[in-house]
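User: I'm writing a tutorial on reading structure tokens. Could you give me a worked example: one chain, its sequence, then its tokens, then a sentence or two explaining what the tokens reveal?
Assistant: Sure. Here is the example chain.
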Amino acid sequence: MKINIYGKNFKLTEPLKKNIERKIFNLIKFNNKIVKVKINIEADTNQRGGQIHLVEIWLLLQQKSIKMLAKAGDVYEAVNNATNRLERLLVKQKERGRQKQRQTKKDFLG
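And here are its predicted structure tokens:
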């Protein structure tokens, strides 16, 4: 699995990169068909002059791709929100696949 991390208007630090990589490697438990991960982190200011961090994560699987966006005032919080949402999505997809397998077995066995 290849992980690419990009920052726009934002300086990526080593602890942040390690935190992101650890969170992404935890997603392998839910789907081991992840081929490539692309992460874009952008810092921007909101209307009141505060910092907003936008995290965009692309998971490229063997047959499809998944995109997840998260915004927060803190970059670590934004990364946590995006990876938690991806985790829930991957679990939901895994359960759907299991239900389809069970349904086809019931139909086949009759």
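What the tokens reveal: The chain has a mean pLDDT of 88. The domain at 2-109 is CATH 3.30.160.100 (Double Stranded RNA Binding Domain).
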